[in-house]
UniProtKB/TrEMBL annotation:
Protein name per the record: C-type lectin domain-containing protein
PROSITE patterns (UniProt xref): C_TYPE_LECTIN_2
Position of the signal peptide: 1-16
Keyword RNA-binding part of the UniProt annotation: no
Source organism of the structure: Astatotilapia calliptera (Eastern happy)
InterPro entries: C-type_lectin-like, C-type_lectin-like/link_sf, CTDL_fold
Keyword flag Signal: yes
Start and end residues of each C-type lectin domain: 24-135, 140-251, 250-365
Pfam families assigned: Lectin_C
Source species, domain of life: Eukaryota
Keywords for this protein: Signal
């Protein structure tokens, strides 16, 4: 088969490919949240975590139950609120220059827990109605950000962006970037995807995805510190007292971080011999799941199963998939022989092409 035809076939199929990086399991037994947590850790990996709406669909499709069920989110942090970005996989990194220093920001007590953007970021009450900025990863006409001139509170704006685009604008590269400056002026303010809360996932993951049912959820109810999904209300979430007994969702992780420094070829051989292969990433959701492994690495990068082919003059995944999704650092894409991709173990977990004889940790499919 000619390479041009072969590539066309792959390009038509690559974005339909989805790796099973994890599995959800619905457990019908009624247990308290902590009992459910213990059960999941013994039988699987942990209580279920959720990165985005794709995960929510998979969670709901794993059962026919229509009641309440525990998930792995809890608010047992003593009220310690942390800033997060709405878009899954984008880590919050504080930068003084991005904030209005005349107002409250960061971990200090402020007037609200959602971020608006004008010339600078300010935290205000999430209930204010204002315009907002959506991010769309589809890159229509090379455009990623969209100003929505409808007044909504932060949660309503988030729901709109997730339904019509990808999410609220998230990350300082978007919020402080040139495209944002072209959209917004100092004459008005707009919501961006910044919020803070005190909720944490049972397995310690950084997922900032929240799916609260705002008609039922009250973040000030100090005695209701464990999250549940309401399967009879589109799977949206609320909270309850942790000693209540309910069925629950576990997840089973299909990824493993190998904390041994190996060259890319050695990592490839190890994963093929001991597991199912070096990890590939074909969408934002999978990026988030791999990031949660990379953060625990003992090397500055972790190898992914992405390599540059001098023969074909393209990047390819070792499972024969073309690159459907990319997260290159600004100067990290070097197309040259003997290059493979390492994901940063922190920051924005961006991809950087590395000489394949460098030695790093790596992530395998189990």
């Amino acid at each position: 088969m000619q390479w041009s035809l072969y590539l066309l076939i792959l390009m038509g199929q690559c974005c339909l490919f989805t790796c099973r990086l994890y599995e959800y399991h619905f457990i019908k037994e009624n247990k308290s949240w902590s009992e459910a947590q213990t059960y999941c850790r013994e039988k699987y990996t942990d209580l279920a975590k959720v990165f985005d709406m794709t995960d929510m669909s998979r969670l709901r499709n794993s059962t026919q139950n229509q009641g309440e069920a525990w998930i792995g989110l809890n608010n047992n942090t003593g009220g310690n609120r942390t800033w997060r970005w709405s878009l899954p996989g984008v880590e919050y990194i504080h930068n003084d220059s991005s904030w209005n220093l005349n107002g409250r920001y960061g971990t200090e007590p402020g007037p609200g827990n959602c971020g608006r953007k004008r010339d600078k970021l300010v935290d205000v009450s999430c209930h204010h109605p204002m315009w907002f900025i959506c991010y769309d990863e589809k890159k229509k006409d090379n455009k990623k950000l969209y100003l929505i001139e409808e007044k909504k509170n932060w949660t309503q704006a988030q729901n709109y962006c997730r339904y019509n685009h990808t999410d609220l604008a998230s990350g300082l590269d978007q919020v402080d970037g040139e495209e944002m400056k072209a959209l917004i002026t100092t004459t008005f303010s707009a919501w961006v995807g910044l919020f803070r809360d005190s909720w944490r996932w049972s397995d310690g993951s950084n997922s900032s995805f929240r799916y609260w049912d705002m008609e039922l959820f009250n973040d000030e109810q100090s005695n209701k510190t464990c999250a549940m999904t309401l399967l009879n209300r589109s799977g949206k979430w609320s909270s309850d007292e942790c000693d209540k007994e309910k069925p629950f969702f576990c997840y089973d992780d299909k990824l493993i971080l190998i904390k041994e420094n190996k060259t890319w070829k050695e990592a490839l051989d190890y994963c093929r011999e001991s597991h199912r292969g070096l990890v590939s990433i074909t969408n934002l959701q999978e990026q988030g799941w791999v990031q949660d492994k990379a953060k625990n690495a003992s090397s500055p990068f972790v190898w992914l199963g992405l390599r540059y082919s001098c023969t074909l003059d393209l990047w390819f995944w070792v499972n024969d998939k073309l690159v459907c999704y990319e997260k290159w650092s600004r100067e990290g894409k070097t197309e040259d022989c003997g290059r493979a991709v390492g994901m940063m173990r922190g920051g924005q977990y961006e991809w950087v092409s590395q000489r394949d004889n460098e030695t790093y940790n790596f992530v395998c499919f189990k």
